[in-house]
Amino acid sequence: MRLAVFHHLPSGGALRALREKILIFKKLGHSVEVFTFSTAEREMFPLEAVAPVFIEPLRFEGVGRFASYLRASRRLAEKIRTRGVDRVWVEKCRFFGSPPILQLLRQPAIFYMQEPLRIRAYEALAPGTGGDSRFLGPPLKASDQLRRLFKAPAHYFIKKQDKKSARAAGKIFANSRYSSAWARAVYGFEAQTLYQGVDTVFFQPDTSIAVKSQVLSVGRLDVSKAHDFAIRVVSRVTDKIRPSLVIVCDQANDEALKALEAQAQLGRVSLEIRSRVSDEDLRMLYGQSRVVLCSAHHEPFGLVPLEAAACGVPVIAVEEGGFKETVLHEKKGFLVPRNVDLWVRYLEVLLVEDAVSCPMALSARAEAVNRWRWDILIPQYEKSLV
After folding, report:
1. What is the pTM of this model?
2. Domain range spanning residue 62?
3. What is the pLDDT of residues 148-201, one digit of tens each?
4. How far is 259 from 265, CA to CA, in rounded Å?
5. Domain boundary pick from 194, 222, 256
């Protein structure tokens, strides 16, 4: 089968997972070509290493940015049509959520939905919120409300295109049961659950890496990732065993960075923020850490706990969202309600364990290998293309 893959992803776990999916499709004997825009992430995870990549120029700036995007989408859809492909596998768009190219393709399109568009109205529809979300982002300041008013037409256009594009797909998959339920609430359709995995050959324990008095939080510098909660937890750990905290993100937004640094200083937490680290550096940071903290709001899947587990590092994850599907309580870590006192208690238990021989670290690695390595998922991806 000739397969076209479209994405417009930023850096992060979704792009790393896409690389693995392309390798699976090739193992299944399919010919794969990748189509994307020049505004997608291309440096951190160069897909050219695994498949031919066609890049359509795009400038997403100014008042004409939406018209430019739609014109570029039409050109790219036409390019895909000329390649004579049998199926098109479509991943998310960093600007629209569900990519408008789904409306323009003639070939059968399969949409892999990482999560619904992250806007306040949709956050309130996330499973478990009852429409009264515990997380809708911080209250808007008067200046933010004014900016939001000016942005209302653009917001409406993106929201409309996102919904229309999602519904144009021939087949839709979501990365977890949680995301499937969320998509049903937002878009009104059923998405089949198709899990992602972890490369347990690359992400594995390395005895040459010295474990530090350090914990790790991974995710973009955005309120949805709740790094502020991780800082509060660490700040409450007993002084004698309090670890440093490392945050790994894709882009270091200055305003968010300064806010986190100020919070850490106030709580007497030694904080380091690392942006755009390589896969090798990320693996090293996992290996150096005693515990990985996963506190994101409405996390659709939970790839970070899988990578941590593959490296033999226990996690503490909030008992919400996709974490409930990727973290097995008391096997690869702890699933804990969003309560600082509880998190401190569980973190201190792990901090006093021997980091190398900790039973939970050993079982975390075994669970990642036995349940989440990519080759186990190959039959499910083969069925997805039918």
Report:
1. 0.92
2. 2-194
3. 545 677 889 999 999 999 999 999 999 999 999 999 999 999 899 999 999 999
4. 10
5. 194
